[in-house]
Amino acid sequence: MELQNLTPIEPRTIKANVLEILRQSIIDGSLAPGTEFNQAQIAERLGISRGPVREAMAQLEQEGLIESTPYKVVVITRMTRRYVEELYSVRIALEELAVERAIERITDEHLAYFNEIIEEMRRAARRDDKTRMLDLDLHFHEYLLQIADHHLALKLWRVVEVGVRRCLHTRHKIYTFLDEVVGSHPTLVTALAERNLELARIALNEHIMESLSHILVNLPPDDASEEA
Hints:
Elements: H1 14-27, H2 39-46, H3 50-62, E1 66-68, E2 74-76, H4 81-105, H5 108-127, H6 130-148, H7 151-173, H8 185-193, H9 197-216, H10 222-227
Antiparallel strand pairs: 1-2
Helix pairs in contact: 1-3, 2-3, 4-6, 4-7, 4-9, 5-6, 5-8, 6-7, 8-9
């Protein structure tokens, strides 16, 4: 397990930060897929007791970032084709629901904020700031869920979002030009502004399926990834 990128944290910030530190380390690959999630080594590297690491494990497992093997060893999950396809099938269901509800509730203020996000995405692209672009991309979609005013859907999105972030972290690295990430976001906002549900659905589906195809094309068949 690669632990060099983990740095000690202050005891007073343990509860607030340990889960996010471990989650981000899995997403960015510092804790590599397929390797053992070793509580003792991680706790030692972070300079904390095993308790906070153990407490974080339940959430990480719920988010699909770690899993228990038949031999009772906990490992960092691999990003398999099946995992990505299942994740995106849930994602598209949640966002289609969000579009249907948001189109009835959206205001000029909401639309203006969407456009602010898009402009900031373009600025991030010009700076080649992949981290900022990823945050903005996901914020755009969470904001759509917020406008939809469906509490359970928003809670489910925040669980799914962790897996989507992991996928997009990989996807954004393959672009030659980051402005490609802006993609069909403006088309979706235009459709929402026009209260055109059909166009909004088309724009959303094209956007999500394009993202899915970019991710899958860079993944080996599941049997190959499991043998690696």
